[in-house]
Amino acid sequence: MAGKLELPPLQVLVVFEAAARHGNFTAAGNELGLSQPAVSQRIQMLENLLNGPLFERRHRGVQLTESGSALYQIVRASLSDISEQIERTRYQRSTLRIDTDMGFATYWLMPRMNAIQALIPGVEVQVSTSPNDYNFRDNNAHLAIYFGNGNWPGTHAQKLFPEDVIPVCNQVVMDKLGDNPLPEKLMNFPLLKLPETRPQRWLTWEDWFRSQGLPAQHHAGSRTFNAYSLVIQAAVEGQGIALGWRPLISALLESRQLFVCGPEVRTERGYYLISSGSKPASVQQEKVTRWLLNEAWNFHHHSAPVSRQK
Fold first, then answer.
1. Which residues pair with 127 in a beta bridge?
2. One digit per residue, pLDDT tens: the chain, 310 residues?
3. Helix, strand, or coil here: 204?
4. Which SS3 state, helix, strand or coil, does residue 298 take?
5. Bridge-based pairing state of the strands 94-100 and 123-129
6. How far apart are alpha carbons 54 and 51 in whole angstroms?
7. Which of 36, 41, 71, 278 lies 20 to 30 angstroms, CA to CA, from 115?
8. What is the C-alpha separation between 14 and 174, in angstroms, rounded?
9. Does 162 sit behind a cis peptide bond, omega within 30 degrees of 0 on the bond before it?
10. What backbone phi and psi angles, to 5 degrees, belong to 274?
């Protein structure tokens, strides 16, 4: 028979998780309905129990120490598991949560939701989106599809699609460009783009022009949108030229809402299917995983070849 567990009060761990997640005792207290001194008192209780600091106190908040970070990963995962099990027990139904970004959800995942649901009848499929890079430590999805280099420690990541990027525009802009336009001709039109990120997360117009041996600073202007769906909508409406990521824009090319107006470029990045490297996969998760990988394989074998970025 299992022995008694030596644990601090559960509320202390809940307070620690919130403080670590927010990096701020006041914000943690606001979330939990506690005062800042009450949060600080519970953190001090836990630090006394462990005989060491869990946070470095700073002028504008707190930062986890090395031992605090290690404890946070365990507490966060454990509380997430408890929360998920409570939800399953409360509603007496199975769920499968898939996390991704808004662009991938809108243009690739949503058109395939009926097919995914048919694989796992009786299971509620939940789709959640985030504009941020994938964070394994704070993610409790069963599966995630995120863009990056495939390096997420603690996960099992399988590449679904490489970063294949092509300039696209609508028919009106294409008529002005003419057949097989030279890359430099695109500089005469507004360039539609996402905000820059540091570090850089995806191919930019500057990267694309550089791959064609051209400087990128001399063009007719640009328009920046904070969501990829807005970038693509602007291209469909003829507001300029966008960079199109396969497979996100493939359906728009097939329906002739958009047209390819420049060479395609490939990088080492791409969209990855991510799952926990430590938790066993459920039967439902394995079914969806196999289906997603098969869909990606089918796409690769029906797509035109691409040129590779230097």
1. 98
2. 456 777 888 899 999 999 999 999 999 999 999 999 999 999 999 999 999 999 998 888 899 999 999 999 999 999 988 888 777 666 555 889 999 999 999 999 999 999 999 999 888 999 988 877 766 555 678 899 999 988 888 889 999 999 999 999 999 999 999 888 899 999 999 999 998 877 778 899 999 999 999 886 656 578 999 899 999 999 999 999 999 999 999 999 999 999 999 999 999 999 999 988 777 888 899 999 999 999 999 887 766 544 334 3
3. coil
4. helix
5. parallel
6. 10
7. 278
8. 57
9. no
10. -120, 135
What token pair was written down for 219?
């063009």
Judge whether 78 and 5 are in contact, CB under 8 Å.
no
Q: What domains are there in the chain, each with its CATH number? A: 10-88 (1.10.10.10), 91-147+271-308 (3.40.190.10), 162-268 (3.40.190.10)
Instruction: Record the tokens describing residue 143, joined without a space.
Output: 């599966």
Q: What does the radius of gyration of the chain's CA atoms come to, in whole angstroms?
A: 24
